[in-house]
Design goal:
Helices cover 65% and strands 0% of the residues. The protein folds into 2 domains: 1-30; 33-100, Orthogonal Bundle (434 Repressor (Amino-terminal Domain)). Helix 5 packs across helix 6 (89-100). The chain has 101 residues and is mostly helical.
Amino acid sequence: MSKKAFDKIAAGLTDAIAIAKGEADPAAYQVHVPANVDVLRIRRNMGLTREAFALRFGLSLGTVRDWEQRKRRPEGAARVLLTVIEKEPEAVARALAAAAA
C-alpha cells in the first residue's frame, strides 16, 4: 500500500473516531460519488473476464454486461462500490472474503 493511500485511510479513521466520540459532527462530512463509472475500463485494467469480475465482487454477470454495454447505468451504492473496486480492489475482496467466513 502506498503512503498516500495509507495516509487517506488513517485520516478517515481519525475522522470516524472523532464522530464516534461525539467530537465531530457527521453531517459535516460528505462523500463524493462519481456521476459516471466506466465499468469496462475498471474490469479491463484488472485483467479480469466479465465472469471473473462478477464472481470476485459479488455482482450479477448480466448486470456487469449491461453496465459495460451501457444498457443500464450503475446507480448510487453500485457507483460507490465500483469506485472502491477501482481504487482498492484487494480491500473489497478481503472484506467480502471475511464476510463469507
